[in-house]
Design goal:
9-stranded antiparallel β-sheet, binds alpha-D-galactopyranose, mainly beta, 2 helices
Length: 335
C-alpha cells in the first residue's frame, strides 16, 4: 500500500496527519485543558490499516455520494443510473470503490495539503468525469478547515463529506464517547426506515432522544426505545440544519479533559453517527480494539438519497457549475 503522509502543524502545537490514500485524516493531536496533547481522531498507524478495514471509513473523504442512495438507483434528466449495492439493498458512501479507497494526488501548501482526484465517467456507475479538489488547512485558530470543490463534464450528482470519528478523551484512552456533551443546532431530522433510507419526512426533534438543541451526553438517551433510535442501533441520522452559509451547527464538550469540538459548515445536513457498528474485531492507532461508541462522526452533507427526493436540497451538478462546500472542525478547551 503506497500512500504519502502529510503533517500539518500550527503555532499552538496542534498536529494533523493526512494520507494521500483516501484523503484520510489519520490523526488530530490537540491539547486538553492542561496542555496535554492527545490524538482525538480514530484511525490506524498506517495506510494498510485503512485498506484492511474499510468498513468504518475512518477519517476518509467520502464520494461521489456521501450516505445512502436507495436501491442504488436514481434518474437524472430522464436517464436511469445504477450504483453498487454495498449496504444491504442500498448504496453507501460512493459504492464499492469510493473516494475513500482512491489514491489522491496530494501536495503540501502553506498550512495545509491539497488533494485532487479525477473520477472518470462511469466511475462506480456515476455519470460524468468529476474533477475533485479537497483542501485541508490547519489554522492558527485551531481549526481543521476542509474546502471541497468539484466540476463535471456531464450532469451528475455529488455529495462529499469527511468521515472522521472523534473521541475527545483521546484515542486509546479506553473511554467511550457516551460522556461527551453533544449539542446540535437543529430543530428537525430525517425520518428513516430499517435501511436508514429517508422517508422524505422531516420530524421535529422536540420530545425525542434526537433533541440536542441543548447539550446532552451522547449516552444519556442512546438506549431509548424510540423507533428511530432502534432502527439506527443508536444515533445514525441526518439532522436538518437551519440557516445558510458557513455557520456553527454543532458543539461537543468532553468534561474530563475539557476538550471541545465546534463544527461549522455550509451544508444543509449533518449525519451524527455514534459508532454503532464498531464491534471490537480490530484494533487501531491507540493500541486498543474499537468497540461500539468509541467514536462519533459528524458528517456534514446534503441529505441522504437526495437524488430520489425532489423536495430535498439538490445534489445535481452540471457542466459549467462548481460544487463548493466548506466544513470547519474547531478545537478548544473549556475550564
Ligand atoms: C455512516 C452511516 C453509518 C455507517 C458509517 C460507516 O455514518 O450512516 O450507517 O455505515 O457511515 O460505518
Amino acid at each position: 500500500m503506497s500512500s504519502d503522509q502529510f503533517e500539518l502543524t500550527n503555532a499552538n502545537g496542534l498536529r494533523v496527519r493526512v494520507l494521500s490514500y483516501g484523503g484520510i485524516v489519520q490523526s488530530i493531536e490537540v491539547p486538553d485543558r492542561d496542555g496535554v496533547l492527545a490524538n482525538v481522531a480514530l484511525g490506524f498507524a498506517d495506510a494498510q490499516g485503512y485498506a484492511d478495514h474499510p468498513g468504518p471509513y475512518f477519517g476518509a473523504i467520502i464520494g461521489r455520494y456521501g450516505n445512502r442512495i436507495a436501491k442504488g438507483r436514481f434518474t437524472l434528466d430522464g436517464a436511469s443510473y445504477s450504483v453498487p449495492l454495498n449496504n444491504g439493498p442500498n448504496s453507501l458512501h460512493g459504492g464499492l470503490s469510493g473516494f475513500d479507497r482512491k489514491i489522491w494526488d496530494a501536495r503540501a501548501v502553506d498550512g495545509g495539503v491539497v488533494l485532487t482526484l479525477v473520477s472518470p465517467d462511469g466511475d462506480e456507475g456515476f455519470p460524468g468525469e468529476l474533477s475533485v479538489t479537497v483542501t485541508y488547512t490547519l489554522t492558527d485558530d485551531d481549526e481543521l478547515r476542509i474546502d471541497y470543490e468539484a466540476v463535471t463534464d456531464a450532469p451528475t450528482v455529488v455529495n462529499l463529506t469527511n468521515h472522521s470519528y472523534f473521541n475527545l478523551t483521546g484515542v486509546g484512552s479506553g473511554s467511550d464517547v457516551y460522556g461527551h456533551l453533544m449539542q446540535i443546532h437543529a430543530d428537525g431530522f430525517l425520518e428513516v426506515d430499517a435501511g436508514l433510507i429517508p422517508s422524505g419526512e422531516i420530524l421535529p426533534v422536540e420530545g425525542t432522544a434526537l433533541d440536542f438543541r441543548s447539550p446532552v451526553a451522547i449516552g444519556a438517551r442512546i438506549r431509548s426505545d424510540e423507533a428511530q433510535l432502534l432502527l439506527g442501533g443508536g444515533y445514525d441520522h441526518n439532522w436538518v440544519l437551519g440557516g445558510e452559509g458557513l455557520r456553527e451547527v454543532a458543539r461537543v464538550v468532553e468534561p474530563v479533559s475539557g476538550r471541545t469540538l465546534t463544527v461549522l459548515t455550509t451544508e444543509p445536513g449533518m449525519q451524527f453517527y455514534s459508532g454503532n457498528f464498531l464491534d471490537g474485531t480490530f484494533a487501531g492507532s491507540g493500541g486498543l480494539a474499537y468497540r461500539q461508541g468509541d467514536g462519533f462522526a459528524l458528517e456534514t452533507q446534503h441529505f441522504p438519497d437526495a437524488p430520489n427526493h425532489p423536495s430535498f436540497p439538490s445534489t445535481v451538478l452540471r457542466p459549467g457549475e462548481t460544487y463548493r462546500s466548506t466544513t470547519i472542525y474547531r478545537f478548544g478547551v473549556e475550564a
